[in-house]
Design a protein that fits this description.
Elements: H1 3-14, H2 20-31, H3 36-42, H4 48-69, H5 71-95, H6 99-114
Helix pairs in contact: 1-2, 1-4, 2-4, 3-4, 5-6
Amino acid sequence: MERSLDIVILLDIYGELLANSQRQALDMRYNADLSLAEIAEELGGITRQSVVYSIKKGEQRLFELEEKLGFAKRLRTLSGELEQAKALVKGLRDDYSDERLSMLEGILSEVQQGL
């Protein structure tokens, strides 16, 4: 998975555990796609070097949390398993005309969207 996508996912999962300045800097960098200068201005005119420091420390903390807790890894595993289950149900639904299979496929899709 691409590093910036990893950080966005980790930020969603663990963002509240970061220092406020780290969370804000990471959110502006990865979700709002702001430059270092724009982030510095948004954070009250701090230096770009301070922004870089907040981003680096925040990234480091996110990866440490994931290494210890593993929520993103489990989320990816569950999502893949749900995709496999949906494919199996779709195959069965194509072979057998049973409304329960369509209902099951819908439930699996809802669960996957909830992840």
